Amino acid sequence: MNWTQVIDPFNNIALSALVAVVPILFIFWALIIKKMKGYKASLIAVAIAIVIAIVVYGMPVQLALLSTANGALYGLFPIGWIVISAVFLFNLTVDSGQFEVIKHFMASITSDRRLQALLIAFSFGSFLEGTAGFGAPVAITAAMLVGLGFNPLYAAGICLIANTAPVAFGAIGIPITVASQVTSIPEMAISQMVGRTLPILSVLLPFYLVILMSGYKKTMEILPAILVSGCSFAFIQWFSSNFMGPALPDVIAGIGSILALIIFLKFWTPKTTWRFANEPPPTFNTEAKYSTGQIVRAWSPFILLTIMIVTWGMQPIKEVFNAVGQVQFEFPGLHNVITDKNGKALPHIYKFNYLSAAGTAILLSALISIPLIGLKFIDGARIFLKTLKQLKYPLITIASVLGFAYIVNDSGITITMAEALAGTGFMFPFFAPVLGWLGVFITGSDTSANALFGKLQAATATSIGVDPVVTVAANVSGGVVGKMISPQSIAVAAAAGHLVGKESELFRFTVKHSFIMLIFICFIVLAQAYVFSWIIPEYEMLSQQTTASIPDFAKGYTYLFILSAVVVAFVAVIMLMAKKNNYKTKAVDLSVVK
After folding, report:
1. 97-144 residue pLDDT tens
2. Distances (CA, A) of 90 to 12, 85, 113
3. How far apart are CA 410 and CA 357, in angstroms?
4. d(CA 491, CA 494)
């Protein structure tokens, strides 16, 4: 069975686009107006998309169902796997009591909720996005903020909004790498163009986040700290993206802004400490004192997480893992069966990369952490089962959301909307970020959005006399503000923030901010295309001929050996610290008895 996508089923692109957008409009209606639970809204949206694909676009029933199943499988792995592992790691720290120590540590830096949000949601979340991406940053930071005592809705919503600034350079720059591959524009040129757009948003984002939490007046009380956080992040993001490439901006900007803010808080503190209205008093003993060893031990799961995820992001290690720990197969009945309007067959190869997946790195961090934080492996097994039960509905939501993404892409529904926007002519640069926003809303991934629309962006820009790097970078930049309302992201944040069943509240919390930031980026891109064209980097298109690189397994195994040595040394240090602390505790107890 072979089938060719139909892009304009009504021979009127505007009318076809109106029908194509129905499933997306339903999601907005279901979550904003009807306040429907996330898994119900996503399942009904899938059903609507399947009906439109079959009835309007003429997609065979078998292909429609297979496409949805393929997407659902991808939702469970690797996306669901990341969420399970991240929430499991967090639950371990809570059940072991170590998160109480982390609360004390954060309070020693600052007990002000505004500043904690900047440190964790904005800076630490950006670091995690740069190393892992695919939902892990929101899952971990939202859980941490809730554990610190944040209102769950604000914790999840703030983490979703904070996650906009780093998404373009997430997972060691993969979104920009993919954009380069599909357009033949050099990675460095796209990185530079994005790096001349997003830092403007990065400067404003901390201010925006704090206003959402506390209002304008309370925001002005910590304006110096906001400027330190935003400006340090934006400067490092601009510098690294323009002079070092797309791989490290999030990693070093995240670390840089954390260090800058912590150092600044050594010399400056706000006049008042702000907390949420009606917030319960701290659940921990505020007079307790913890040694450096106890603090490091409490943070050890997250330190291990950082080490593991940074290492997992290295290409040589990925190649080794994929060589020995990956199963891939052509999806039966779907691979190369659907062809696009240009006659190109669409591949559907499912990769079960169980070793190189970011979720596996997080899970290993959690498993190694179990004895370090004073738990037994039987406790770990119990907590893991509890985590699976906790994530039952979010996993259904994630699977159905990815099923939705695959059916609208394979049927041609997404391309119909893209073609309609591409027909806006002179104004296309204004709408170019909307395409990226739409792609990330549907797929939950800036990488997928760039693969989907990158070529269309470049071709349309060239046809109207605009440098294609402007609109390709706009696809990347526009996509970042779609991340906060993507049903996949909402499901992840709801799971981590204890908001399962309240996805509609979270969606309503973030949706207007997504539109505000999208319009802001649209005007920036329009100005870049026609007014500030001097900002566009000079570059030469890449050759269409590509040569397959030979994996360097020796380098990969060397890196793994170094990783093993680092982890063993870290574990030994933590165990020694724990043993020394136990001796001190026993000595104090004996002296009290005497």
Report:
1. 898 888 788 778 888 899 999 999 898 888 878 766 666 688 788 888
2. 51, 9, 20
3. 25
4. 5
Is the CB of residue 437 less than 8 Å from the CB of residue 518? yes
Length of the chain: 594
pLDDT digits (tens, 9 = 90+) for 548-590: 567 778 888 999 999 999 999 999 998 888 787 766 655 544 4
d(CA 167, CA 301): 24
Cβ-based neighbours of 567, under 8 Å, separated by 6 or more: 304, 307, 368
SS3 545: coil
Tokens found for residue 212: 């959402």
Residue 350: helix, strand or coil by DSSP? strand
Cis peptide before 78 (omega within 30 of 0): yes
List b or e across 462-499, with b for residues whose CB sees 16 or more CB atoms inside 10 angstroms.
eeeebbbbbbbbbbbbbbbbbbbbbbbbbbbbbbbbbb
List the chain domain ranges. 3-271+291-533+552-593
Residue type, 200: I
Phi first, then psi, for residue 352 (nearest 5°) are: -100, 80
Handedness of CA 283, 136, 162, 389 (dihedral sign): negative
Predicted model pTM: 0.80
Q: Is 389 exposed, middle or buried (0-12, 13-18, 19+ CB in 10 A)?
A: exposed
Distance CA 22, CA 589 (A): 68
- Cα-only R_g, the chain: 24
- Let me know: does 482 contact 438? Beta carbons within 8 Å: yes
User: For residue 41, which of 556, 494, 518, 540 has the smallest C-alpha distance?
Assistant: 494
Q: Residue 191: CB partners within 8 Å, gap ≥ 6?
A: 169, 173, 176, 241, 242, 245, 246, 249
Nearest 5°: the CA angle 392, 170, 186 is 140
> Could you give the C-alpha distances from 270 to 177, 226, 260, 287, in angstroms and in order?
42, 11, 16, 22
Q: Give the tokens for residue 429.
A: 């640069």
Distance CA 95, CA 383 (A): 8
Region label for 282, one of left (φ > 0), alpha (ψ between -120 and 50) or beta (otherwise): beta
Task: Identify whether the C-beta of residue 115 lies closer than 8 Å to the C-beta of residue 390.
Answer: no
143: enclosing H helix or E strand:
helix 136-148
H or E stretch at 571: helix 553-593
Matching residue, tokens 């003429």 = 58
Which residues have CB under 8 Å from 74's CB, separation 6+? 350, 402, 406
Phi then psi for residue 383, to 5 deg, are: -70, -35
Helix, coil or strand: residue 383: helix
Q: Which of 412, 408, 411 shows the shortest CA–CA distance to 441?
A: 408
Work out the angle between the directed axes of helices 61-74 and 392-411 (0-180°, nearest 10): 140
